[in-house]
Amino acid sequence: MKLFNFHQYYLFNFFTHILIFGFGLLTGIILTFYLNKTFYLNFQLQPFLLPSFGLKQQFSPPYIPILSTNINVSISNNNTKVSTMSNHKRVTRKGLSDFLKPPMSAMHDMSDDELLWRASIVPKIQQTPFKHTPKVAFMFLTKGPVLLAPLWERFFKGNKGLYTIYVHSQPSFNGTVPRSSIFHGRRIPSKEVRWGENSMIEAERRLLANALLDFSNQRFVLLSESCIPLFNFSTIYTYLMNSTKTFVEAYDLLGMVGRGRYSPKMLPQVKLSQWRKGSQWFQIDRELAVEIVSDKLYYMVFKKYCNPDCYSDEHYLPTLVSIKFWKRNSNRTLTWVDWSRGGPHPSRYIRTDVTIDFLKYLRNGTTCEYNGHNTNICHLFARKFTTHALDRLMRFGPKIMQFN
Ligand SMILES: *[C@@H]1O[C@H](CO)[C@@H](O)[C@H](O)[C@H]1NC(C)=O
Ligand SMILES: *[C@@H]1O[C@H](CO)[C@@H](O)[C@H](O)[C@H]1NC(C)=O
Ligand SMILES: *[C@@H]1O[C@H](CO)[C@@H](O)[C@H](O)[C@H]1NC(C)=O
Ligand SMILES: *[C@@H]1O[C@H](CO)[C@@H](O)[C@H](O)[C@H]1NC(C)=O
Ligand SMILES: *[C@@H]1O[C@H](CO)[C@@H](O)[C@H](O)[C@H]1NC(C)=O
Ligand SMILES: *[C@@H]1O[C@H](CO)[C@@H](O)[C@H](O)[C@H]1NC(C)=O
Ligand SMILES: *[C@@H]1O[C@H](CO)[C@@H](O)[C@H](O)[C@H]1NC(C)=O
Fold this sequence. Notes:
alpha/beta, membrane, glycoprotein, glycosyltransferase, BC10-like
């Protein structure tokens, strides 16, 4: 049965070892190569999740930072030169700057699911180890262009670094925005929106999610193409930033256009007594914005049981906020609108409606509560103004509103 003699056995053994060694070496080389690639790929795909990857310098090709014009994050550990332990090469400290920089353009190719997931990420450590200037996200939900853009351009002038703009317009809109405009490159990936339908809520959530990608955005304002500001930037900025409350209008209305739109199929998540109505034009903070993009439970209930004649955009947020986040909500909106003429649409303002007295009235026509005190400033925005009103708004507006 002995097939090999002693000598042959040794030779066989020797070659087997060589073979195993060679195989191991080959596997090692392939694995190293493969891992390098994977590592590099991972890093490319998720720069947001793995910001302080120590191996970046080793694996990434020449790194081209994306320059942003509207963020100013100054790292507290300032940009002093630090020397690395290994080779004493001097490198400039980057810290979190790449991680915190929002993309220059609002466009991306994330799906809605990917976007909402990413927007729902919240740091568990509350205190930031860097200084940043909080910004207001102005989110325009439009059909086509931002009709009153010239007025908004005047409004934003001189306040760079304190705001970010996002525009959600119908996908069919193919107009262009001049490079010099503050609206240039601010259009987000958009989908078809139908008035009064669920797609309106989807668009609102899409706007919020896009705005949440920028950590500096701390307040979120939803506007339409026919909205105008009623005060100058600094007044609006301070009002929003200092507020202890969020502004989602919510009220309980008896009758067909209120409780009449409720469906018992929404039980047990939504009871009739919890059903609320309100304007879709909100002003909220980051905490509530994250909750809204993260909500699946109520969103699904509304998607299933609040269809066309229900007008989910007038009920979803008021109801959700009143059930879960009412403690910090003021139940009012800062966007003035006139429903006095009746019908399903509010009054529109044309050229002749715009007078100095009318604008003054909008700025100071009511009283309300703000941070526990009464105030005359109850509305910061107003709708609905047509393009025909633009030339008069441009003439009186900046002076009455004390634009700088
Ligand atoms: C940067 O940090 C160094 C040392 O920590 C400090 O001496 C210097 O004053 C700082 N510079 C600024 C501009 O904060
Ligand atoms: C950013 O900060 C630098 C210095 O800290 C300042 O010179 C610059 O004007 C700031 N930019 C903006 C947009 O605020
Ligand atoms: C833009 O859309 C309109 C119709 O909505 C069409 O007539 C026009 O040709 C389009 N323009 C471009 C440049 O695609
Ligand atoms: C907002 O808060 C700041 C700092 O707390 C304060 O200086 C400022 O007066 C407040 N503004 C208003 C309008 O309450
Ligand atoms: C807002 O509405 C909720 C629920 O309807 C209520 O509990 C809360 O007290 C209201 N808040 C204010 C400030 O009126
Ligand atoms: C607002 O209106 C009230 C009374 O209508 C008036 O006393 C007050 O001076 C007005 N405030 C401003 C800033 O115009
Ligand atoms: C903004 O308007 C307020 C009055 O509403 C005024 O006191 C303030 O000076 C204005 N700010 C600027 C920067 O013009």
